[in-house]
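Risk register update: the risk of archive-format incompatibility is retired. Evidence:
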Amino acid sequence: MTIEKTLAFPGIYAVIVAAPSEVVWSTFAFDPSAQTSPNARIFYAMKFTQISPNVGSVTIPRLFLVNYTDISLHYITLNTGTLTAFPVVASLNRTLYDFPTIGDPFEERADSFSGLQYGFESYKTQIYTFYVEQTSQYEIGCGISMIGTGMIRAVYSNDNFQGQYSISSQYPAGSISDSNLLVPYVFLRPKQLNIS
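Archived output:
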């Protein structure tokens, strides 16, 4: 399926094909039915290619799903520059170990962890989502290195759970100084956006 869409260039735009979901600032909140489906929740992500001054095009290949499901198409504008260009979504009241569900409360969005209104420690959940693209025609495996303070409950690449990092031997729980965490074996899809 090819989609052509009027867009304001210059700019970087993408389409995300996912299980029934909503975009909540910079991340996805899934319908509760998506949490129990045998299908992945994020099927495909691709940047639009500019084909004329105000039109972008993207081709979505055939999707192979385990069973019938509704899908959501999300059109997003990507930030460029450093990773700090991607906002943090935070909840004062809800502790999450997975992607959010539609209706989960998120009271705040900030451009960085330090920009959260009530201070980093006041929130039960902070979600940081960023997009990575690789241009190889093959899936590649790599490691992602993160430097930070605190603990990480879960790391995902697309819908692939990469692990929990709240164990103090892997990532200092409640640490007050920056530590380095390596998430090994992250697989990046060929010629696609990968959501982490």
